[in-house]
Design brief:
The protein is α+β, with helices and mostly antiparallel strands. Helix content is 26%, strand content 28%. Bound molecules: zinc ion.
């Protein structure tokens, strides 16, 4: 028999070296993704819109309870429950994803809503760590867009009573500012728990005051980034609720923000609304308008509260009834 070409000593020496090499690489920072190096970050979904690099970053998740108790009209709850059951969805609460869209083009970085920020809840506020993991620091952000001032959208723009993104212009609608600063914000049509509203109003006024020096109001149809980003007023969820059209080199994405809070309920019947809507009737009118257009134009959509990474298209099976067709996680080329 011939003896093996390696001996025990060289094997041990070699494995020790390998272990030490593994330990060193585990401690080191992961290499930044470049065109040459593949993107390996399971917490961040990277995709392209023309020549804009886009990231979908999860800020965490919530479970809204009571599930059907948040949905209206109340008389339709048995049908809502049937839709959920037929899709094997959990019924103890409505899972709410929190997806944050980030765009990068050259030295410009745009963030669309900033999530919960620092919050004493381990399921929230994952955004900033994930943002840093793709090499974007807070000071790199140049444009901060607000869709509306509910805490899962606005809270992250202010950290420890200071502006989170020190070099960013902050964009929102005048309608949203007017609502929160009116002497008595009108929640009369909303089905949400009224006990939360004074605190919510007070906190939002404080946040807007902090952001005031960098605030720029955008009107319906206004665009920035040389026309690559256009705001559309989409009222109902709140008075100044905004959605965002993004385009580059013929490719388009429409960020529908809070037109949908669930991938079944706000599509199976567009007349179904959630208690968080300030004006549910107007929210339905807006949803019908935007969905109808997106279906006709086959628009690629992105949803703040849809299952991560939140990209998809619309299908339709009947009047006022749609199907969310999600894009599957894809590793690209
Ligand atoms: Zn929301």
């Amino acid at each position: 028999m011939t003896s093996p070409s390696w001996n025990r000593r060289s094997f041990l020496t070699g494995s020790a070296a390998l272990l030490s090499q593994l330990a060193t690489s585990a401690a080191a920072e992961p290499p930044a993704a470049t065109a040459a190096a593949p993107f390996r970050n399971p917490n961040v979904y990277r995709f392209q819109i023309g020549d804009i690099e886009a990231f979908s970053i999860s800020d965490g998740h919530s479970l809204i309870r009571p599930a059907m108790g948040m949905m209206h009209p109340e008389s339709d709850r048995p049908q809502m429950q049937a839709v959920m059951e037929s899709h094997f969805e959990r019924l103890d609460g409505i899972p709410l994803y929190v997806n944050i869209l980030v765009l990068r083009k050259g030295k410009e970085v745009a963030v669309f809503d900033a999530g919960f920020g620092k919050w004493p809840n381990p399921n929230w506020g994952w955004f900033f760590e994930a943002l840093a993991s793709v090499g974007i620091q807070r000071g790199d952000v140049t444009a901060a867009f607000l869709s509306h001032a509910h805490i899962d959208h606005i809270a992250g723009f202010v950290t420890d009573n200071a502006i989170t993104f020190p070099n960013a212009q902050f964009y929102c609608t005048q309608e949203e500012l007017d609502f929160w600063f009116s002497p008595e914000p009108d929640f009369s049509k909303s089905k949400r728990d009224k006990r939360e509203l004074p605190g919510l109003t007070r906190d939002n006024r404080k946040r807007f005051e902090i952001l005031k020096p960098v605030t720029q109001v955008l009107k319906d149809g206004s665009s920035v980034w040389n026309g690559d980003i256009r705001l559309e007023l989409a009222p109902g969820h709140t008075a100044g609720h905004a959605i965002f059209h993004i385009q580059s080199k013929g490719e388009k994405l429409l960020h529908i923000m809070d037109l949908a809070h669930h991938h079944l309920l706000m599509f199976a019947n567009v007349n179904w609304t959630i208690a968080f809507d300030h004006d549910p009737e107007l929210a339905v009118v807006t949803r019908k308008k935007v969905y109808g257009r997106a279906l006709t134009e086959k628009t690629r959509l992105y949803g703040f509260h849809l299952p991560w990474p939140g990209l998809g298209h619309l299908g339709s099976t009947a009047a006022d009834s749609y199907v969310w067709i999600p894009e599957r996680y894809s590793w690209g080329s």
